Amino acid sequence: MTDDDGDRTGRVGLSRLREGVESRALTALAVLTSAALVVAFYYPTATVLIEAVVVDGAVTLAVFAEVLTDPFYFGELARLLSGESPVAVARSLASPERRLGIVGFTAYQAVLSTLASVALGLPAAYLLARFEFPGRRTLRSLTVVPFVLPSIMVAVGFVATFGRNGTLNAALGALGLPPVDLMFTLEAVVIAHAFYNAPLVARVTTAAWESVDASAVETARSLGAGPVRAFVDVVAPQVYPAVLTGAALTFVFTFGTFPIVLALGGFELATVAVFVYRL
To answer: Regarding the domain with residue range 103-278, which homologous superfamily does it belong to in the CATH classification?
Structure first.
């Protein structure tokens, strides 16, 4: 055996040893991570679930049925789940005195916030994807704000801007105009959620706008399709999956939001998270 063969054999041995050590280290890391998840997340979650379905040693869904049929949680929809007439429930929901319940109001404000976020984020994504202008890269970078900015900062900023002694009312007072009272209203919560989540929608849908083939749109127009038909047949199928993804993420975030609702809505507009905080 020559010296070169010995060196080659040594390098192969070291490489195999290093691969073995790395494999065992990754396995150990995976085991530790799984154990941490079990202890910190899965075990507490399983404990709560078991306590909810096991009452006096017997498995039952009575607790869930009681919550679903309680107007405090689901408002008028609880009557529907209790077996009342859908027509009567629909009339109650259409009346000004309708009751949404804690869960119902949480979903209601999340839907409004999602619609507002999509209405702002979708045009912004189109501009960022289709037009070149100074500051475009900076604006696109700012779409990561929801991922790094704590929601409490948004709440504090809105209080400083739209509060009774905020910047907006100070400017209106200087112009001799009456003040605007947005604090502790549903409008303030929805506007703050839209400001916070519209960049998320823009971030998710920008890539979809960029992937739209402009030549396909031009071909559809040349074949006699109008602007609306070309959009529905060519653009929408390529964009709407990303829009649905952004809307779903926004709904989840706004359904479980806590600081924004507490700071701008107060206990009068309590969502599920705020209600749990009050317990």
So the answer is: MetI-like (1.10.3720.10)
